[in-house]
Amino acid sequence: MNNWNNLIERLLYMTGKHEAAPAWALTMKLSEEVGELSEIMLHELGHLHHKDKEWKDTPIEEVADIMNVVLGLLAVHYPDKTPEELSRELLVAMIKKGNKYGRIIGAAPDILI
């Protein structure tokens, strides 16, 4: 197993065991995290002149926050599934949806297979 798969499974395990928030609250938390990513992207692209503050995270770190909340949401929403099952199902869905997105943007057909 590569480090990425191991990390995903460990994050799913951690959040499945320790996340106290219900799935609906994590959905709201996800919206907050996406808003933070949007805000920092707007700032970096020069569109938030009225906000004079120090930005503590980078866009990559904000995406990591989003991914952590998404994994927590999945772990809480599917408590009967193991981290390994969730990781496999997520991989299959990412390939399916990634290929669909690839077709939309004009990439080679089924590039992720």
Distance between the first and last residues' Cα: 18 Å
Mean pLDDT: 91
Class by helix and strand content? mainly alpha
Uncertain runs are: none
What is the percent of helical residues? over 70%
Q: What is the percentage of strand-forming residues?
A: under 5%
Radius of gyration: 17 Å
Topology pattern, helix = H, strand = E: HHHH
DSSP, total strands: 0
| Overall CATH class | Mainly Alpha
Largest sheet: none
CATH architecture: Orthogonal Bundle
Shape: globular
Overview of this protein structure:
With 113 residues, the chain is mainly α. It has four helices and no strands. The protein has helices spanning 3-18, 23-44, 59-77, 83-105. Helix 1 packs across helix 4 (83-105) and helix 2 runs antiparallel to helix 3 (59-77). The longest helix has 23 residues, at 83-105.
Highlighted features:
113 residues, mainly alpha, Helix Hairpins, 0% strand, globular
Summarize the structure.
This protein starts with a helix and ends in an 8-residue tail after the last helix.
Write the layout of secondary structure elements.
Elements (H helix, E strand, L loop, with lengths): L2 H16 L4 H22 L14 H19 L5 H23 L8
Helix pairs in contact: 1-3, 1-4, 2-3
